[in-house]
User: What shape does this take?
Amino acid sequence: MATKGKPPKPEELSKISYTPPQRNWMDIPVEFKPGMYCHATRPKYLEAVGMPFPRDWSPADADWKLPDNWKEIILQGIKERLMKYRTFHVFMDICVRCGACADKCHFFLGGGDPKNMPVLRAELLRSVYRKYFTTSGKIFGKAAGARELTEDVLKEIWYYYFQCTECRRCSLFCPYGIDQAEITIIGRELLNLLGLNLDWIMGPVANSYRTGNHLGLEPHTIKANIDFMLDDIETITGIRVETTFNRKGAEILFIGPSGDLFGVPGNYVTMGELMLFHEIGLDYTWSTMACEGGNFGFFTSMEVAKKLYYKIYSEAKRLGVKWILGGECGHQWRLMNQYADTWWGPPDFLEEPVSPITGTKFENAKGSKIVHITEFTADLIKHGKLKLDKSRNDHLKVTFHDSCNTSRAMGIFEEPRYIIKNVCNHFYEMPESTIREKTFCCGSGSGLNAGENIELRMRGGFPRANAVKYVREKFGVNMLANICAIDRAALPTLMDYWNPGVDVCGVHELLGNALVMTGEIERTLDLRGEPLPGKGGAE
Amino acid sequence: MNLRNFLTEKKTLILSKWFNLILDTYPPETAKFFRNQDDPFRNPVGSTIFVGIEKIFDEIIKEKTDVAKLSIFLEEIIKIRAVQDFSASQAIAFIFSFKDILKDEINQADLLQKPATKEFLMDLHDFQSKIDLAALISFDIYMKCREKLYELKANEAKKMTYRLLQQAKLIVESPERDIN
Ligand code: SF4
Ligand code: SF4
Assistant: This one.
């Protein structure tokens, strides 16, 4: 849409009509706008996991260096998935184009590109489905909403399927339950048949496959990082917390998102968890081989996702633990709840998780054998097992962002709120239409939290930021809590753009602040090492 | 006729015309949704623009316009347009549509034909300069937003691996809450 040629005079500017002529969406060719898409994956990452067609290419290039038979590959891919996934087949057929989903996507709401309406996003692929897999489409073509699969169409699907965070918000409003996230997942699988993934996704995939974490860190680096946190905990509490790595025979294997080991503010979450485990005397261990709850394979294909999570279970088997405790991660929970059981069935070498402290059976985790840490901690609090000093968080006015994956995919609504209310005196909800199952995505999920697509992320995150702005203005909220590592990576940037002054934290950071530990010194610092107001620190 | 009174009387009409002109910069399907004002959380862009232009209008017609406030109101809208599909000029052109609407309204009411008083002409000149000022401020705000985006990109990469950089002694300062 950029104005070409001689720049208009200011007075003339308002006279220019920026309204694009009303045309059928099929006739509007895709335009790759900088800031809206990510870099193509480097070939070495595809090679690392044996994925097809590794090559150097760039989305902005006219020539994507597709294999000669690319079209057959995609059509065959669609055919196989129509047979394999009943949902996909149904979603391709039943949309009545009622438009109920149209204004529910954060990318459409924040950016205004009509092809980000979920109904149109689906049509991009559905039109191809009609052309090759339905009689009406074969006969009536465009009149029946069908179109040829051309390179331009393929590029359009790529452009818009990597502008969907697979958040499922739209599906909540569809009377037929059509889930665009599932369609996007399959669309991306198809694109991966041609090696068309993002660098930001394939890098973590390749690293996780090799080392068990996104950054590709070796065991000694992981250990050194955790030791570093133990030093900080000692400074703050006066207590030397111990932890173990790769310890066979531990009762529980703990696996959080690796972002919480190396990034801020995620590392404060890990510190809170380390303190908690110490205080309750939990028999647990870390694994330096499987220390990644995140799984960017999920944004690639089901096969790759499965490949990466295999590591978690084989490590649990090798160490002989009874069950797995997972950290504050978002999509880890969607995968474990919605897919793991179908992939493998319940692992028979693990036991149904039972809290060793309260005796609570986590029946919901009977299949996957993995408990989310907010379930675990909320249960501890409920049974009065923790001594908490809420006032240590009195300088914070907290609101809670429901991550798409833990809320819409898993129904974790109350546990984090319960913890927050027990460790903070000031908690304020955002408006009802923007939380719980209706939560707005951070705008950076499903592997889209890269740097080169920052405009996309900022516009996609605007509906969320707008609700935060409301509670900031109304209640003075200055802390946005969440239970997802991608949130902790993406929301600080989002807040910095839309609501400077609002900080971001994980729930276990707040817990770590409030947790009264046996034998601790008087706390004057919070987990960030900053003076606690009114606690002998700064006022 | 006092220009300020005239504009105050016409405020609703002017704002609705202005809002529509801004919405016209979006594709028609989008404009349809952005127009709906029922719920600011269901339609954050439309409602931010709708509320924002009223604040800008009120500030500009004040005898003593507070430039700091005016900047804040402009920023709320420009921040949005700076990450949408607009070039710099397109992002801030909405200020000039306000000027056009003013001109049209004055013409329609024949205010310049009915021998305009010196006071009226001075006021008119004053308003136009304020709108020009708003346009200049808008351009600065737009540039600030774009610079902010670059800065955010750089900081984010640092934050994601903060601990590693710290270990490698590439960062020596304490882990401040604000490491921007
Ligand atoms: S709400 Fe469902 S049926 Fe209606 S347009 Fe959207 S996907 Fe189609
Ligand atoms: S799944 Fe989320 S990002 Fe994708 S179309 Fe639906 S609302 Fe938009």
User: Anything to note?
Assistant: Residues A 95-101, 118-119, 174, 176, 178 surround iron/sulfur cluster (ligand 1) (CB under 6 Å). The longest helix of chain A spans residues 219-237. The first strand of chain A starts at residue 252 and ends at 255.
